[in-house]
Amino acid sequence: MSKKFNKKEFINDVKANVRALYRRNLDEATQQQIFQAVSYTVKDTIIDNWLATQEQYEKDDPKYVYYMSMEFLMGRALGNNLINLTEYEDVKEALAEIGFDLNVIEDQEPDAALGNGGLGRLAACFLDSLATLGYPAYGCGIRYRYGMFKQKIEDGYQVEVPDNWLKDGNPFELRRPEYAKEVKFGGYVRVVYDEKTGRNHFVQEGYQVVRAVPYDFPIVGYNNRVVNTLRVWDAEAVSEFQLDSFDKGDYRKAVEQENLARNIVEVLYPNDNHYAGKELRLKQQYFFISASVQAAVSKYKKKHSDIRKFYEKATFQLNDTHPTVAVAELMRILIDEEGLTWEEAWDVTTKTCAYTNHTIMAEALEKWPIELFSRLLPRIYQIIEEINRRFVAEIEARYPGNFEKVRKMAIIFDGQVKMAHLAIAAGYSVNGVAELHTEILKKQELKDFYEMMPEKFNNKTNGITQRRFLLHGNPLLAAWVTDHIGDEWITDLPQIAKLKVYADDRKAQQEFMNIKYQNKVRLAKYIREHNGIEVDPRSIFDVQVKRLHEYKRQLLNILHVMYLYNQIKDHPEMDFYPRTFIFGAKAAAGYRRAKLTIKLINSVADVINNDASIKNKLKVVFIEDYRVSNAELIFAAADVSEQISTASKEASGTGNMKFMLNGAPTLGTMDGANVEIVKEVGEENAFIFGLSADEVINYENNGGYYPENIFNSDQDIRRVLMQLINGTYAPNDPEMFRDIYDSLLNTKSSDRADTYFILADFKSYAEAQRRVEEAYRDEARWAKMAMLNTACSGKFTSDRTIQQYVDEIWHLDKEVIEA
Ligand code: GL2
């Protein structure tokens, strides 16, 4: 294992770093400076292991997976690195000795928020599992100067503040200018006939060029000395070219290249499950993909001379369609630079690329207008045209005379380039992210593709890393689990099933619930400090944290809170177990209805939290700036996990798994991975409600749902909806929430009313909520349920997911780093 921790040496190194970095002594240093100094000290250890890992890989020449993703939602690095080095407790102790609190030091680190939500956080969990399991991997992405915006709540509204996460410097990253690559945009393609070979050559001319410079982040495996690499690309202007243009008097072009470089990695698009279709986004995609594919090919060529066997040493996993230009970029390099024929290049490409689908939401589908695409990436467009020509020929051969098939499956159609179709046509694997989701892909969204090439389709149910979301995020429970069953769960989560024998043990139940209570106290303190709201840790903490999206139905949750409030006001004597409804959610900056929903939640909170007459039975809290670091506190403290998406819409969800691991039963629909959670834990240990995916899809296909019937026949629902437009929650502007009301009932817009079946599921949701309350009142029953959720969460480790990708898609060999 790694070099043994030496407390004295560690303290000396921290002191030396404070001196070298800031010319200060320990007692003069700020907490931020201590954070930097500690991080550099930890980085030293990591670098030893990083070198050892690269040396081992160099020797063994293994196959690598390149996990290509526009998003890596890493969160903070220091605490996680210490956990995985198994030095967390040692460092905590050492710091305490010199008067610092590791928790406070950790809080100095900004989250690396290079992602929006589930898709980006999944990529981060996957990297953790790959390193822990010892598989050679690169994460490939973009080093955004500004990550996901910081959310401030002002007067109940979301305000977006730029996330300048690099302002104090990032101690863990390493700039690698020696691996820089050039990426070309625009211009035109000249075809040159080569007499000797009798082949055409394609030369891109008149283009703009950007220098891609990689920054490497270490990905530390758990207690195994493996350190893999997340490589994110920064953009710089190409200075020589600039001078050259300037000499030729092409000043304008030089400035343009400078601007292109500056803009390209400036900011992460804050859209979750939504395609914005912006030109800059396509530039970002090609920028990091071209650099990553070039780097993978260069790496291969260092050791191998036959590029036609590239796929034996490399596989590209495309995290959704965002990196799909990789298909055409690899073809370009193989044909234009390596001199392969089309057929040879296609053979390599289709054995290298694999695609993961993460959503069925229609508005998330990437479709680029031909005009934009061909202007920005002329050579890449040519290649895609040829891929499409051949693919359409295959479709026609398979379904003669069936133009409908061509219309539905072509890669280029109706003036658009369809990235999912390209990924499926060129990929050797297409996977969904939960069983239900994969079934819906096969039966609905990608039916035609599944029929034509069923062998490509497979499921990989998502997972999460227990190292961050239990060992780091919930130290009390982690220690308790280890006390009872040993520590193998840290790298083998299914072991956690051994806790089942304690489910009926009164003492264990009390200990388990006491830990939950302490975590609720910790969260209550956070809420007091950040929201100025007092919440009672003895109340039920009912939590919905995730991106704000209509399909996730935060609206259903808050409408139900309004309904409960009406009940309590009408029947003050009613027996009601105190409940704290906790929300956390960022809305895409341009998503108006989502932002209005945040305002609604805060307005309802304002009224309810300030109504002394209800005697603190109800509290509503909107936690500002929900992100990975505060998520860890929130999961640990949750009693109830709200997973209430319209069935069929949430591809998997991963928050649901983090709650389960931390002992919070799911209150949810039969959607995404909820289905598998319920299968593992048993329906009696979850609270399931609502329409099934089949029912929803059936309504959608037949257009037959009338929310106004429910509105007209159900007084409780009608009253709640009327409160949206009668000033109950907006006395100064009763029209404030009109849009939300209209979205449920009115068909002024072109959308169907109540697209997400909120009214259809309302009563069933309220009923499930009553079951929650009833179960919670029975302490022993609840404790058992909570503990069983933790005990049955073994399937949902990302270690299992990654092992399935390795066995069924990537076929990698495990590496062992010798001590
Ligand atoms: C998502 C899905 O919405 C979510 O259900 C899933 O868990 C993750 C990871 O597979 O992917 N798809 C998507 O576009 N985003 C997601 O979070 N942004």
Automatic annotation (TrEMBL):
InterPro entries: Glycg_phsphrylas (IPR011833), Glyco_trans_35 (IPR000811), Pyridoxal_P_attach_site (IPR035090). Its EC number is 2.4.1.1. SUPFAM superfamilies: UDP-Glycosyltransferase/glycogen phosphorylase (SSF53756). It catalyses: [(1->4)-alpha-D-glucosyl](n) + phosphate = [(1->4)-alpha-D-glucosyl](n-1) + alpha-D-glucose 1-phosphate. The modification N6-(pyridoxal phosphate)lysine is found at residue 658. One of its GO terms (biological process) is glycogen catabolic process. GO terms for molecular function: glycogen phosphorylase activity; pyridoxal phosphate binding. Keywords: Allosteric enzyme, Carbohydrate metabolism, Glycosyltransferase, Pyridoxal phosphate, Transferase. One of its GO terms (cellular component) is cytoplasm. PROSITE patterns: PHOSPHORYLASE. Its cofactor is pyridoxal 5'-phosphate. Belongs to the glycogen phosphorylase family. NCBIfam families: P_ylase (TIGR02093). Phosphorylase is an important allosteric enzyme in carbohydrate metabolism. Enzymes from different sources differ in their regulatory mechanisms and in their natural substrates. However, all known phosphorylases share catalytic and structural properties. This is Alpha-1,4 glucan phosphorylase. It comes from Marvinbryantia formatexigens DSM 14469. The lineage of its organism: Bacteria, Bacillati, Bacillota, Clostridia, Lachnospirales.
